[in-house]
Amino acid sequence: MPTQANAAGSPASGEPAFLAVGKLRHAHGVRGEILMEVYTDFPERLQPGVVLYLGDEAAQLRLIKCRPHREGLLITLEGFTSPEAVGQLRNQVVYVKSIDRPPLAEGEYYHHQLIGLNVVTAAGEMIGTVRQILETGASDVLVVIPETGSEVLIPMAGAFINDIDLGRQKITVTLIPGMLKEEAEP
User: Fold this and answer.
1) Which of 10-24, 37-51, 83-97, 102-116 has the lowest mean pLDDT?
2) Apex CA 11: angle with CA 10 and CA 16, to 5°?
3) Which of 53, 136, 153, 155 gives 58 a disulfide partner, CB atoms 3.0 to 4.6 angstroms apart?
C-alpha cells in the first residue's frame, strides 16, 4: 500500500494517504481495457479524468473510460491502447487519495476510521480495541479484541452503539448479557 504523503499535505493523524478501490485483473478486448475487481462502495466516483494510483509505487495514471462489466469494471487508462500494454498492470491494487473520498452522511464512517478505536461501556468499562469489521448482509460487525479473553462481536446497530467519537478515539456501547464470553460461561 502506498504510504507517501501527497502534494496537498499529510492526511489527518491516523488517516491513510491512499484508499484501495480495486485490483486489476486481466486485459479485455483489443483496445487496452482491463477488468478491475471493485473494492470500493463508491464505484460511481471512478469517472473519466480521475487520477488513480497503482501498486506500491503509487504510479499515477489517468482514467479515460470506465464501464460496468459483470461483477467488476472495465477501465481504460491513459497511454494504454493494447491488451499487451495494459496486461503488464495485472494484479496491481488501484488506489485513490483519501482526501478525494466522497463525504459520508452524518453518523456514517469509513471502516479505516473505526479500526483501532477503543470500545467502552456507558459506565466507562474498557471492552477492547476494534481490530476488524465484518461486513454482513444486515449490518457491519465490530470485532473487538480485549487485553485478555476472547474477541467480542458487536453489531453496528443503534441498540448496541451509543456514540462514536473519532476525536477521542472511542466507541461507547451497550452490551446485552452473553456478549462477553466470560458472562456466557457457567
Assistant:
1) 10-24
2) 120
3) 53
Burial of 81 (0-12, 13-18, 19+ CB in 10 A): middle
Task: Based on the fold, state whether residues 91 and 136 are members of the same structural domain.
Answer: no
CA separation for the pair 184, 17 (Å, rounded): 41
**Is 29 within a domain?**
yes
Question: pLDDT of 6-54, one tens digit each?
Answer: 333 334 445 668 889 999 999 999 999 999 999 987 888 899 999 999 9
Same domain, residue pair 135 and 61: no
The pTM score is 0.62
CA-to-CA distance for 124 and 177, rounded, in angstroms? 17
- Indicate whether 6 belongs to any domain: no
Let me know: does 50 contact 62? Beta carbons within 8 Å.
Answer: yes
Residues 96 and 152 in one domain: no
Longest dimension (CA), the chain: 66
Neighbours of 32 (CB within 10 A): 22
What cell does 139 get? 449490518
Length of the chain: 186
Residue 115 sits in the same domain as residue 159: yes
